[in-house]
Amino acid sequence: MRAPLRWVLWDVKDTLLKVRLSVGEQYCKEAERMGLSLNPLEVDAAFRNAYRNYSRRYPNYGITQGLGGRSWWMGVVRDTFSQCRVQDPALLNTMAHNLYHNFCNAENWEVFPDSKKALESCSSLGLKQGVVSNFDSRLETILCVCGLLTHFSFLITSEEAGVAKPNPVIFDQALQKCGVPAASVAHIGDHYVNDYLTPRSVGIHGLLLDRNSKHNQPEVPQEHRLSSLEELPSWLQQHRN
After folding, report:
1. Is the Cβ–Cβ distance between 123 and 151 less than 8 Å?
2. Predicted confidence pLDDT, tens digits, the chain (241 residues)
3. Going along the chain, which residue ranges are E strands?
4. Which of these, 33, 68, 98, 170, has the minimum number of CB atoms within 10 Å of its CB?
5. Rounded to an integer, what distance in angstroms lies between the CA atom of residue 137 and that of residue 68?
6. Beta-strand relationship, 17-19 and 109-111
7. Which class for 130: exposed (0-12), middle (13-18), buried (19 or more C-beta within 10 A)?
């Protein structure tokens, strides 16, 4: 007999909301406020390089190396601008500080049109909801200013958890908070490994959100895929009891 569904867990970035402008555009706006004129495409490429390097050298915000989200992100920002020939240490620090805090503002994020209705449908079915996200400590503030926070009973960020997806330990922590068997929990996200394979490895119903048909893994059956969150209520109805 199938266990009834009791909880829905969510990824956040690129699942419920996305960054409104490209990183290059956001960073160039900050540089412009400081009297600098930079190319968004060049800044975007520099950011990707800095992000990749920091992720490799200091995984999960460098927590085990004594950094943390704020220091990690400020390092990424400084490194990005340094690659674009900005060398003044005080200016680099000011822009890094401003950008770190600016990303807490609602105007920098766009909630997908189907997100709020999907969250409301979970609540209306009597399901509790939580977040499992590779994110830093700003996530609670971001969800609050975007009008989504009240839907969730708990948030687990990789910074807080000390581990990041695809480490299954982060889902073990979520299951402890849920207090129900894994078979009574679903997780929804847009990343094949982090949000589909990993939760399934601990017995959670992983659902892969594929808004732009970019996932072509044949081993993901159609009933485990969502092309939009509008398809979620019917799946929940089928698995609720």
Report:
1. yes
2. 578 899 999 999 999 999 999 999 999 999 999 999 999 999 999 999 999 999 999 999 999 999 999 999 999 999 999 999 999 999 999 999 999 999 999 999 999 999 999 999 999 999 999 999 999 999 999 999 999 999 999 999 999 999 999 999 999 999 999 999 999 999 999 999 999 999 999 999 999 999 987 877 778 888 899 999 999 999 988 877 6
3. 7-10, 17-19, 109-111, 128-133, 154-157, 185-189, 205-209, 225-226
4. 33
5. 9
6. antiparallel
7. buried
Burial of 212 (0-12, 13-18, 19+ CB in 10 A): exposed
Structure tokens at 5: 């569904």
Residue with tokens 């290059």: 24
Tokens of 123: 């609540």
* Tokens linked to 164: 């990041």
